[in-house]
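Dear support,

I submitted the protein below through the web form. The confirmation email said the job was done, but the results page showed an empty box. After a refresh the structure appeared. I'm attaching both so you can tell me whether what I see now is the final result or a partial one.
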Amino acid sequence: MSDDSYFSPDEERQIDEAFRHLIDSYLQTKHRKKVEKITNAFMFARQAHKGVRRHSGEPYIMHPLAVAQIVCSEIGLGSTSICSALLHDVVEDTDYTTDDIKNVFGPKIAQIVDGLTKIAGGIFGEKASAQAENFKKLLLTMSDDIRVILIKIADRLHNMRTLDSMLPRKQYKIAGETLYLYAPLAYRLGLNKIKTELEDLSFKYEHPEEYEEIQGKLSVLRGELDRIYEDFTKPIVTKLDNLGLHYTICGRIKTPYSIWKKMNKHSLSFEEVFDILAVRIVFEPNSPEHEQSECFDIYLALTKIYKSHPDRFRDWVTHPKANGYQALHVTLMSNSGQWVEVQIRSTRMDDIAEQGIAAHWKYKDGATYEEDETELDHWLETIKEILEDPQPDSMDFLDTIKLNLYSSEIFIFTPKGELRTMPQGSTVLDFAFTIHTFMGTHCIGAKVNHKLEAVNYELKSGDQVEILTSKNQKVIPEWLDFATTAKARGKIKQLLRKEERSNQKFGEAIFHEFLEKEELESDPDKIERICTLHGLSGRDKFMIALGQKKIILGDAERSILKGDNGSSWYKRFWSTFSSSKDKNGDNTGKGDTPQNGIDVRRTLIINDFDSHKYTFAPCCHPVPGDSVIGFADETGHITIHKRKCEIANKMKAGKGNSILTVEWNIENSLFPATIYMKGIDSIGTLAKVTEVISQKMNVNMNKLVIESREGLFEGTISVMVHSLNDLENIQKGLRKISNITTVVRKEE
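What the results page shows now:
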């Protein structure tokens, strides 16, 4: 197929086989067969990427082929998307232009390739992770043609599948972005299978030890789970056969990532995660009209075999999720005394669950997605509203979008009985902003089910809500503590920034008047020193604080502006700060050249002697032995986070170029850690706990909080340890106490 002499005969054969597999997969779909069009796109891309190899060493053309295969087989898109996937890197990486694509393949494919090219170098590219504008471009292209983001997700999935060839620092960056943004995007677009794989692959590269440990425990459990599945499904199969249904039934084992996430969220050990096994029933309905009723018929049949859990029934059939997901979820008590979740779906629902929006088109009788008014369209409208507010801070922007990507839904009724879908955890204030910005801005509370509730009241599914307002009420910073939806937080921040700008302007006037009165001149270095004196991050924050009357200019500021650093205390402070900042590069190993003014090196060695050159993040309290990661800010200051820390995940997505890999070399320092435990309350248990920690382990306890009720107790112990090994030894000692059932490290 090619006279390309850059690749070996085996590689040429590999390329041809991958293309034949793509065509075979395409021919098995229900799409109109445009094989010639796809073949032309492949030949064009093959020529454009001629002689180019990936990091792994394989021919580059294998990447667009793999992306096109995912687009075809795993997302279920047609020839336009397959061609766009084959061509997605041509404009970015070669001399061909969008006009060249348009001339050969037409305007639609050119538009999609152009959309993919525009978002290639931004927050998801190699250049500058913290450019929120590029993420905005991605979201804007979604409303132009949703296929752009679907192909981009396929591109990221293949990159994650082949991440082995990248350096660890790049692996952390790409895995962090994937977990923080791509997996939620896949979820919101209904690509459940891809979302799950993206999460698992991110987990594998970010936390390889935990991943392997959970995989090992699942392997040991597999035989027992198979036995439970066989025993549990045998009477179900008999019942469904008697009903004359056409169906498939299969087991689903919880993924390592979802197990790990649950362990961390609820402070559980692996053995305490009880819902590792789930069962899925997918049936072919007799007719579309009877699809929903047949779902409930199966549910009723199951409840005649097993007792159901009263609080774990989920009806996503009559109330689909915002991404279109439909199914009934019921949790049943098996004969072996274990709870097992059963998911009931029709074949149509199953397609939508696995292929998301692409499956919606399949069931619209030829209608295009532009004509398909779904919850997804409402979500895109919300995204557009957020995009209309230019947010200067990229991390704030990512936070705002993230809130709107990954959330379960609840259903709220207006006073007139209209149904509104809200993210789980929404408050009265969130609902007020959903109705109208004016309602949110002036909200003072609500009548929830005819009962008066405060603005921070968390709504529950089925609540009827009437918002109460007052013209005297205005937005306050404290609202950000409990506003959870993207729209509410975006509007609150927008209004607060408007107030900040007013305060900043007032502060500038106060400062200018002070300079004139004292006959002083200012420069950036002196203002930076004043900011450091007050613990402020920059000039703007200083002016805002002046405008808010939180700072009153006096002798200290006058002294700095005159060039006299003031008291000996201030001189010592500034000398230490400057010295630390100037020498920051000394504690890093050889590696990358400076980027964007930050001295980003490959590896930071943490030792006792240079401890003043970095800080340990208070959000996650890493200790020696933890898997950690470093971030250098604009001043060169380095903060150390645990790799599993949520704040670190956000920073990996937004500030990937400031990442440092980190190695521990600490022996004498002490670090704070918290242990959570629970068990049966009995006399002497507390004495045994203190004996294990203080006497046997010779560790100091900073704080002990124990709560006991109805014969059970739970509590936390704060200790100071030298390393993760110390912490694990304490936990082993506590687990040996007979009445204690759970001992885990508490994640801050």
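Response: this is the final, complete result; the empty box was a page-load delay. The chain has six domains: 9-208, 210-371, 375-490, 491-550, 584-665, 671-745.
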